Amino acid sequence: MRQLTSLDAQFLALETPRQSGHVAGLAILDTSTTPTGELTLADIQALIAERLPLLPPLRWRLQEVPLGLDYPYWADDIDFDLEFHVRELALPAPGNDEQLAEQVARITSRPLDRAKPLWELYLIYRLESGHTAMLTKIHHALIDGMSGAEIMGLLLDLAPEGRDVPTPDRWGDNEPPPGELAMFTRGLLGLPRYPLRALRSLPAAVPNLEETPFSTLPGAGTVGRIARAVSGRNGSSAPREKMAAPKTSFNGRVSAHRRFAFGQLPLDDVKAVKNFHGVTVNDVVVTICAGAVRRWLIEHGELPAEPLVAQIPVSVRTDEQVGTYGNRIMLMRAPLFTDEPEPVRRLQRTHDALDGMKERHRALPASLLQDANHFIPPAVFSRAARVTFRLATSQAGRPTWNLVISNVPGPQFPLYCAGARLVANYPVSVITDGMGLNMTVMSYCGSLDIGIVADREQMPDVGDLIGWLRESLAELMP
What we know:
By secondary structure, the protein is an alpha+beta fold. The protein has helices spanning 6-13, 41-51, 82-85, 97-109, 145-155, 180-190, 193-205, 220-231, 267-277, 281-299, 343-362, 368-373, 381-394, 464-476, and strands spanning 2-3, 22-30, 60-63, 73-76, 86-90, 119-125, 132-139, 258-266, 308-315, 329-336, 403-408, 416-417, 420-428, 437-444, 447-455.
């Protein structure tokens, strides 16, 4: 068995009937490259069955410790049922993008069954384009953006013919997981580790409390400054820059229902803007997101006088940690200059702000989020995580972050799934109370594939953002 880290467990702890902790991806597949010209459920089931030995997270089932005495474990599901996880459906005519987005929103609004390995896959037929869609849905406790890309890399091939995959004699433990009494004993034996974990985490976490969800607790800033002064970390005990997020209509309590929108931008156009203005691709992505959100705020009469604050997840996974799955991320806080009306000036301000943000976060320990969680005993972890997160998203009526923006680089060559060419791969990410908007971008084969998730009630017109992203990019073109 493999124990979840405190950061992995946090994604489980934050789940409620209204917010889920899974992420998803919508792959659009051209089936004309397969030997039969089609892609069936049996094809996908055969592909996954062949590659299961290389994909241990797809076989892991959650094993809780009684009374929450310790973080849960992943155990191999000896009754693994592939047919339960891989499903199919068809869109009604005409099968357009709006119908596909609505179906994706409905499927991703439903929680995963914790009695099974925490993933599902849906083949979706009868798209108006003639392609087939494949929606993969997997819990964030299992993967972050980089480890999710590793899983997709093992399912995808460089050629329609696929590749030879070694088949081991056995996979997994093939043994029943421990029972309740054994897990209870394991939890009791782990009790002495709690204070040791907290003590080991003190030097890294306390001086940087302002960079964690604990920044919302009274006195966190003062404690961090004193700890930095005593330890000499970061060279100063002065307060760090504090960004106050204005409240918008997508920063309230989310419902249980989602809306999803997707689209593409030419990567060459983004690179042309990058080269002409001397910035990075990420600067351009964040800037055009700011332009699109600014337009939405204006349309709804909500444009604040100050910038919004974006949460930007950043991978801290090292080369040695490839293949370890789980979560190895930092959450960076950056201004989103929706208050800037001039597009090029918005881009320059974004470039300067992100440069400063990267410099600040370079000095932070890679395990900061995990270290900060070690101050909470596992027995009360779920409740404390929800309370802390609620404070972090809505302290004194103002959220800590307004939205999530994520830019994930991907391969720039064609990939294939069971012989079908991958046309696009749209991310479908997470929203929570206080952050009812998530804009995630993934580059692939000459395009930026954009997936936007919003609360169904807060942003019923989220699809408008796709067109405004294109307009924002056009405003920056040389």
